[in-house]
Amino acid sequence: MSKDQPISPAVMAQRRPPAASVPRPAETDQARLTGTAAEVVAPEEMTGSQAIIRSLEQLGVTDVFGLPGGAILPTYDPLLDAEKINHILVRHEQGAGHAAEGYALASGRVGVCIATSGPGATNLVTALADANMDSIPMLAITGQVASSAIGSDAFQEADIVGMTMPVTKHSYLVTDAQEIPRVIAEAFHLSSTGRPGPVLVDVAKDAQQAMMTFSWPPQMELPGYRPVTRGHSKQIKEAARMIAAAQRPVLYTGGGAMRADVPAELLELAELTGAPVVTTLTARGIFPDSHDQNLGMPGMHGTVPAVYALQQSDLLITLGARFDDRVTGQLSSFAPNAKVIHADIDPAEISKNRVADVPIVGDLKYVIPDLTQAVRQEFEETGTPDLGLWWDTLNSLSETYPLGYTKTDDGLGSPQYVIERISELTGPDAVYVSGVGQHQMWSAQFVDYERPRQWLNSAGLGTMGFAVPAAMGAQVSQPDRVVWAIDGDGCFQMTNQELATCVINNIPIKVAVINNSSLGMVRQWQTLFYDGRYSNTELNTGHNSRRIPDFVKLAEAYGCAALRCEKDEDVDETIKKALEINDRPVVIDFVVSANAMVWPMVPAGVSNDQIQIARNMTPEWNTED
What we know:
The protein is of the alpha/beta class and 625 residues long. The chain has 24 helices and 20 strands. The strands form four sheets. A six-stranded parallel sheet has the order 3-2-4-5-7-6, sandwiched between helices. Helix 12 packs parallel to helix 15. It catalyses: 2 pyruvate + H(+) = (2S)-2-acetolactate + CO2.
């Protein structure tokens, strides 16, 4: 999604003018960062709380998700009068955090959430850790007890700065009201530049209440923070030489490409090189699934051609990926004959898991075009490589081992079919958000992704309960798109209270509960590795169970439209009904078989060469020495 797309909340009767997009790092200066129109505000007296709201307004923030409490109450008072900020009252602080993540992922803008001290702040920790793992720009503002009471075990006191330092890009404690504009501006800047991530600002209650002199823009104090944006020219030239010499190259594309917003740049590089492209779980959609060079998702539940291509490659052109264990499998046996070009904005990722032969530190928005230019020049001098044999092998694998599934043998619904039909009947203009587990992998496999920011999920942390609140945030940022939360019956029960938020605020998400009456991925592992001993995975929500809860009744109690589908032949009609309802959220209880499994699969801890296409069935391929 373009960062220049107008952003307006679904809850507002009239559209606001769009706020400014987050600037590219190399373009950032004080005026561009700290005001949508480089607005200068003359000094004026106000409280620290008013300064918080005013700072957010100056930064172009239009939507925040939060839940008030005693320590943040001073800030909620001026928020009531804010004309530029729409506050959405969530039912749980974790929901606020995930909503801010969904907002950021769908729009490319910084997501903002607010909570009070103690348990309010600690309820944000899961969302902060999630955003940190997936490099999501997010600003969390929390209240803290008065500075004089810090350290005294005061009521609802918790050291949230200490708790969140390992799972945020940075955390601030503000005890002086005069520091608020600077800290908010710095937090916003840190969150949205370099490698994006969450930043927490904890503001003592007395700092919120104290008088201060507000002016804008503030003078930021970040002397050690200078993200490198341009890749080193010699490294880029060396990378181009390696690409020109490679016979089995692969463009290994990760979530960093999505954060850098480089679909056009990646497409140009891919078509120039002719190399196959694999897109990780967080990169799905950055390169169109319909493109002939797209081999799909690599890793534990990736496609056979994608996994094979990485294993047999002689050159990995790694763009914004981090060689995580779900992609590499047994790291020592991953892509054993490949040299590695690794481009990433975060130097800490380069050579962390796999040593890079050519490291390139920089923003992919600039690195990829520079690399494309260097490759084009190299091709002009040495000729374009012939990748015909490489593609013959990969195309043969694609034909022999296409991504698919078999119907269930118990007569119950097929979850893959449900998700496939949701994709077909809704199309790529929609946003698809998942929880974590089998339904997440099926959604990654069987939805057609044709554009960036079409697919949102919790990848690195694997947070159950992500889908509903993240879909809510995505819908607020994209009111004109259909937003599907494809959730599991286990995940759905963790955060479904945010349906109340959606109903009250007219946020019409559509929730497809893939109800196999169990913790599906855990059950799959119990089937495969624990001799079918199903210890504590039955949820009693599906077919021939007590249906506790009954998802249809639950949805109706929240004021949603509620549907149930138990047969494959009824799937299309049910989805079409859901797509016709746009005045409130829709929840569909898709009752499916518990026996369906996610294939292909690389068992944990083994080489990707041992990928299975079904239980105890491994593809036949000739591997290189």
